[in-house]
Amino acid sequence: MWLGPEALDANRNINNAVVSIPGTHSPVAGSGIFRMIQDQYYALTIEFGNSSMGNGVLTFSYNLPNSSEAITDLTGQLFYNSATNGH
User: Fold this and answer.
1) Which of 1, 27, 69, 77 is most buried by a 10 A CB count?
2) What is the CB neighbour count within 10 angstroms for residue 84?
3) CB-based contacts of 81: which residues, under 8 Å, 6+ apart?
4) DSSP code, position 15
């Protein structure tokens, strides 16, 4: 998962990802830290794959500053630009 300028970079890779869990494995949790400034938009790219091991699971959540509560409802918070394939 990439946020910010790296999310738009055609050369993004696991070394500049905020979260990276490469390889074939059962579902595992990953996390990363990306500091944001209020009222600014940040590009987000998530690459998610599924292997022959079975059904994949992708759960995206975030926490507000000074809160341990994970927010998973992204209604009205993610926008997709169909004219540019999301970018």
Assistant:
1) 1
2) 8
3) 87
4) G
